[in-house]
Amino acid sequence: MSAPINPFASKPSRSRSFEKVVLGVFRTATYIILCCGFFVFADILFKGVPTVANAFKTTASFPYVTNTFLFEAPETLYVFEKDGKKVEMGDGEYRTYREAEEAKAVAAGQPAPVFKASSYVYSAGGIWPCIVGTVLLVLGSMTIALSLGVCSAIYLNEYAKDGPVVRAIRLAILNLAGVPSIVFGLFGFGMFVIYFDWNVSLLAGWFTLAFMVLPVVITASEESLKAVPNGFRDGSLALGATKWQTIRKNVLPYALPGILTSSILGIARVAGETAPIMFTAAYVVRDKLPWDVEKASDFFFQGVMALPYHIYVVSSKIPQNEYTSRVQYGTAFVFLGIVALIATASIIFRNKLRSRYQW
Amino acid sequence: MVTAINRPTAAPMETSSATPASRAFQVPVRSTDAEKTPTLIEIENFDFYYGAKQALFDISLKLDDKRVTAFIGPSGCGKSTLLRCLNRMNDLIDGTSVKRGTVKIRDTDINTREVDPIELRKRVGMVFQKSNPFPKSIYENVVYGLRIQGETNKAKLDEIVEKSLRGAALWEEVKDRLHESGLSLSGGQQQRLCIARTIAVSPEVILMDEPCSALDPIATAKVEELINELKKDYTIIIVTHSMQQAARCSDKTAFFYMGKLIEYADTRTIFMNPANPQTEAYVSGRFG
Lengths: 359, 288
Prior knowledge:
The complex is a heterodimer of chains A (359) and B (288).
Chain A: H1 14-53, E1 56-58, E2 65-67, H2 68-71, E3 74-82, E4 85-89, H3 91-107, E5 117-125, H4 128-159, H5 164-177, H6 181-195, H7 202-226, H8 230-238, H9 243-250, H10 252-272, H11 275-278, H12 307-316, H13 324-356
Antiparallel strand pairs in A: 1-2, 3-4, 3-5
Chain B: H1 2-5, E1 39-50, E2 53-64, E3 68-72, H2 79-85, E4 96-105, E5 108-109, H3 117-123, E6 124-127, H4 138-148, H5 154-167, H6 171-174, H7 187-200, E7 205-209, H8 217-230, E8 235-239, H9 243-249, E9 252-257, E10 260-266, H10 267-272, H11 277-283
Parallel strand pairs in B: 3-8, 3-9, 6-7, 7-8
Antiparallel strand pairs in B: 1-2, 1-4, 4-5, 9-10
Helix pairs in contact in B: 4-5, 4-7, 5-7, 7-8
């Protein structure tokens, strides 16, 4: 006896095969993106990790180990031949070496030795001043952006009456988000550096970067304020709380996780932008670290080195050679690491807040 | 609704022989029915607008002190609007305005410049349709209003928490977990927590905007029982869609339709012997 006819058997048709094609397209697109991301990260990791890993060095005093790439300033690399071997030396090291050789020659009564070395700018040493500068830029600009942005979001969402004016403000803020970062850089240069006469300084960089992320912070803060149910506001007001008491005690705490999420995105952007700081805050090279200032107010009016700008300088502003890619990828790797670190810290903090106030 | 109807009441139950056959429920005669009480809230010729749209037309109403008054009527009839006028919660909505008439509480017109809505709301508490415990601990929920007023004495706060939760018939259920989130409670418990939060600031009046519409019959019965208890100390005004609820727990009932007050009388009269044919049609379930 033959098997009963299956009434639910699939019938091949054009729409069926089309379904498969569509699925294929979507899936391929997703995997292509995934591959791109993977290759970018893999490239930076493979080329960047050795730079950091090879820079560990033991020291005589506590903490006995240091990383010359992470914790030293950039130096010029000197490469020369000695006894048929290629020797690479950083700036300081090379200078002491030369003095020692000269002294040796004098002591032995020989003529002063001739040194022949090729020098490669910024290819030795490390990126410590850039790390410090980037962290300072992120902290300062996020503080400004968050305090201004949250205030403005509270005003727009809680106080301002919805009308043409508020809608126009909102639209303007959204448009601000679409302005290219180089335009913010130019604005910061004209406004803070020249008009306010702050020169190329931390302060100018902070404000320029803050203005750049403000639209993101405001929009996201407003969204998270909107997400707080109105019942909490009504309930609080019905108990005789004033508007600010209500916002302070019963709206803002619940909106904070969302606001922090937006600021995490902001951190990544602030840390990564080159254009806004290249006219306003970043130096190509600076010997002194930011806390090496004579008086406290100087702290705000000094330029700093920054990781993204350093990548830009070592990738396009100096002659390329076999030694530059070491610094380029090392810096990129450290940079990604720092952004990941700050973001992780903020995410952990946000999740802690979120679990405290759940509804 | 069996539990709710068979609940023991302090007042003697009496079935009226005059009940029209169309009623599916009875209205008990209460011992308080005959007593006269002073008027607490007096609404006179009150017109209220949302923007250009008139929501309330010429409402005049006297609400008794330490009694339960129910506002009934079909959706959109203005009963919630009137309720929200009593503690000026409508101020929070853009474009609302009082065009005519007064609302007087203890002979003070609450819509004048001299009245601070913040102070008013401390005296006239409100329980919302959707229970809205704050995402804080049960304890913090109850003391919220007091903390706002700057009370920091721990002993006093503890005392008020116990008193309020007992008052809201919730103490026995939550006394061991005061520091758990208020949102971990069941729907009915959440609503009673909101009532506890309201009575913690010791208001004179409690406004309830459909407090049981999201609750199951058992939780509803508990809240109604609570309302019966609370009216010893508070004046309660309750908006409800359930006519049984109005019949069970209110002393007086006002019927609204299309923003107008159609009839206001003793609950028994409204349900058993309404003067207005529209009221009769509504309470017998023929419309609305």
